[in-house]
Amino acid sequence: MPFKSSLPAAMAVALAVIIAVGTNMTTAVAQEKVRDPAAIRVTGEGQASIAPDMAIISLAVVSEATTAREALDGNNASMASTITAMKEFGIAAKDLQTSGFSIQPRYFYPKNSSGEQRPPQIIGYTVSNQLTVRVRDLAKLGEVLDKSVTLGVNSGGDIRFTNDDPAQAIEEARIEAMKDAMGRAQTLAEAAGVELGPILEISENFSHSPPVPIVRARAMEMKADSAVPVEAGENSYTMTVNAAWEIRQ
Known about the structure:
Blueprint: H1 2-34, E1 39-50, E2 54-65, H2 68-88, E3 96-108, E4 121-135, H3 141-150, E5 155-162, H4 167-192, E6 195-212, E7 234-248
Antiparallel strand pairs: 1-7, 2-4, 2-5, 3-4, 6-7
C-alpha cells in the first residue's frame, strides 16, 4: 500500500521539475532576445600621411668565376668594401644585415652529334651576397646607392620608405576613423527617425599604404649632386573602425 500511495507523489515531483525547466528555458530565450537589441552598424575610415624618415634598401653583389673559391673571393672583396663604405656614411652596425647568401654552380647542357642531350657539365660558379641597409639620413640615400655600385654592387636596389615610429600617425588615423563612424551612425539614425543609444561594440583594422612619389615642399629633397635621384614621397596609414550603436525608438 505505501508503494501505491507514493507513485502519484513522484509523478507530481517530476511534473514540477519539467514545468520549472520549461519556465527557465522560456526566461532564458526572452533574456537572449533582450541582449540582442536593434542596432546601427557602420564602418568608419581614417587616414594620416607623413613623410618617411627612413629607407630600407637591398644591395647585392653577384660574382661569377671558374671555381667557387675565385667567385667567393671576388664577392667577399666587393661586399667588404661596401660594408665599410656604409659605416663611413654613418650607418650603424645594427642597421646592416646580411639577408641572403648563396653559392650556385653554373651548368652547360651539351648535346651529341645526333642531338641527344648529354649529362650537364659545371662550367663555373655564381656567388651572391645580399645586404639589407637601413638608411636613417635620407639626404644621403642617393650617395649611398651611387657609392655601392662603384664598389661592386650589381644587383638588388629595392627601396622601401618607412617611418621609424609611426605611432602618432596611426593614432591620428584611429581618431579620424572613429569620428567618421560616429558621423555615419548619426546620419543613419536621423534619416531613420530614431536615436542612437549606447555603443555596443568597436573593432579596428589597420593598413599601411606604400609611399606615393609626389612633389611638395616637405618631401625629402636629395642633394643636387647625387648620382641617383630619389623621391621619398609620403607614407599613408589607414585605420578602419567597425562600430555598432543600440537604436532607441
